[in-house]
């Protein structure tokens, strides 16, 4: 085992042009970078997998149904008479006299 400072490795240059691919359950995204032109992605291509449209429509319908249900519940709650609170209790404060 050698002692002392380890030998320096020359820094490797990272590529200036590259692409990254991100895959989700619904989409496949391809991000294209060119760091000479811009620090972020130059273009983003989004491709949807088969059956995504049906899934989105189903999700929209479920949200509409849930919204209607909430409106119905609120309407029912507003139509019921409010319960009156009993405020007959009077608070008594008992202070112990410290000098007794």
Descriptive notes:
It is a single chain. This protein has 100 residues and is α+β, with helices and mostly antiparallel strands. The chain has a domain at 17-76. Helices cover 28% and strands 23% of the residues. It is built from 1 helix and 3 strands. Strands 1-2-3 form a 3-stranded antiparallel sheet, with no helix packed on it. Strand 1 (17-23) and strand 2 form a beta hairpin. The N and C termini lie far apart (84 Å).
The fraction of residues assigned to DSSP E strands is 15-25%
Shape: flat
H/E element sequence: EEEH
Helix-strand makeup class: alpha+beta
* Neighbour order of strands in the largest sheet: 1-2-3
Please describe the topology of this protein:
Blueprint: E1 17-23, E2 27-34, E3 41-48, H1 52-79
Features:
100 residues; alpha+beta; three-stranded antiparallel beta sheet; 28% helix; flat
Summary of the model, kept short:
This protein has one helix spanning 52-79, and strands spanning 17-23, 27-34, 41-48.
